[in-house]
Design a protein that fits this description.
mainly alpha
Length: 416
């Protein structure tokens, strides 16, 4: 059965790199689930063992954070933030800065994919209403959600997994990763500004008058009570995260309290959860777990250890993060590395979280947040193309990755 497990594993990660199955409408989550079903149906892995490969604590933490984000969404907070950004600045340069700061700040506390999903449509509408081309601001939005999410353990899915596997401390993670993440925000602003200065209205199109009025009149929150409930839940969760209470239990407890509402149906809250992402995690946990249970994984790790090629040094970790994040994606690559890499040192885990997140800015396919911004913008009539993103994304990633690696080396977290 080892040959079957290895074949399914290879086919799965080819699918992760392609992002779909040619000729079929099957995305990465579908690929991972089909692969898990093949392993179970062929008896290469039994059901109990496959279920045991799933990191339940990580799944519970992700689910809890998604319920919290759903609470903000129901209150109208995300739409209000996007509308506020487009009204608060009188110059495009200041508007770009506001977009980056707001998107990064929200992504540090809430899962970045949800921030990107919620803010993109109204940002497109408000910018076009002002006669501005949304493309540079969308690039700033996508890159800022990645940069901001690198600050904390709960900023993005790969950080959540890394934090759970390594039992990393919330405040220590912030102290190590926040300074380079703030530097990355400055890099995002500087490069987008430099590339688009004097051309903010170039290629701008119009929107329907009704849509402009809707965007202009959107308040920072649509439902005050639900907004205050979300803020209180966030504050309570952050307090619990720095306490001895396990993070997954804390997130589930807060989620349960939010679901117990007299005004919002629980089905609406649960429906706002990104089940596609959760199912991607389940499938990849099973596939990588099955490979990890074979001798192939142990032999590969032993060979890499003998050649000093484990990603516990910056000279290996940095290029590996860039390549893997922009081929199979940063979430699948982190799941794979953590499953096959025995007992990684804490410093390398901080480095993996930071560098894999920064690497997501390189190409449009580098992170789920990038793809969400592009797809949501297309639905609003704005095209964010591969070339336009790469023109800014490549220098943003190279500069921010160099700064991040230099910081990790300077503080002694990860050796060269």
């Amino acid at each position: 059965m080892t040959g079957l497990v290895l074949g399914v594993f290879i086919a799965t990660y080819i699918g992760m790199a392609l992002g779909r199955v040619p000729g079929l409408r099957v995305d990465r989550a579908g690929i991972a689930l089909i692969a898990a079903v093949v392993l179970i149906a062929s008896r290469a892995v039994d059901v109990e063992k496959a279920a045991g490969f799933v990191d339940l604590a990580t799944m519970m933490l992700l689910f809890g954070l998604m319920i919290l984000s759903a609470q903000f969404g129901i209150s109208g907070f995300y739409d209000g933030c996007a509308a506020l950004v487009t009204r608060m600045a009188h110059r495009p340069e200041a508007l770009l800065a506001a977009t980056i700061v707001v998107a990064a700040g929200l992504s540090a506390v809430l899962v970045n994919d949800i921030v990107a999903f919620a803010m993109t449509p109204l940002l497109c509408t408000g910018l076009r209403a002002r006669g501005l081309n949304p493309v540079p601001f969308l690039i700033g939005l996508a890159a800022a959600t990645n940069a901001g999410s690198a600050m904390t353990i709960i900023g993005n899915p790969q950080n959540i997994l890394i934090g759970q596997v390594g039992r990393l401390d919330f405040l220590t993670f912030f102290a190590i990763c926040a300074p380079p993440a703030l530097a990355c925000m400055a890099v995002v602003y500087g490069i987008v500004y430099w590339q688009w200065r004097g051309r903010w209205g170039e290629g701008a199109s119009t929107v329907q008058p009704g849509a402009v009025a809707d965007a202009a009149g959107t308040p920072i929150y649509g439902d005050r009570q639900q907004f205050l409930k979300a803020v209180a839940a966030t504050a309570a969760l952050l307090v619990l995260f720095v306490s001895p209470v396990p993070r997954d239990i804390a997130a589930l407890a807060i989620a349960a309290l939010l679901l117990a509402s007299r005004r919002v149906a629980s089905r609406d809250m649960i429906g706002a959860v990104d089940w596609n992402l959760l199912l991607l995690f389940v499938g990849l946990f099973m596939v990588t777990g099955a490979l990890g249970a074979t001798h192939v994984a142990g032999d590969a790790v032993a060979a890499l250890t003998g050649r000093q090629l484990l990603p516990d040094r910056l000279t290996v970790l940095t290029p590996l993060s860039l390549v893997m994040s922009n081929t199979i994606g940063n979430v699948p690559s982190v799941i794979l590395l953590l499953k096959l890499w025995p007992a990684p040192p804490a410093g390398a885990l901080y480095g993996l979280a930071l560098l894999s997140t920064f690497a997501g800015n390189l190409l449009l396919v580098g992170s789920l947040a990038n793809l969400i911004v592009a797809e949501r913008a297309a639905a609003s009539g704005v095209r964010l193309g591969f070339g336009a993103h790469a023109r800014a994304g490549v220098p943003i990633t190279l500069v921010s990755t160099a700064l991040g690696a230099a910081w990790l080396w300077a503080i002694g977290a990860v050796p060269l």
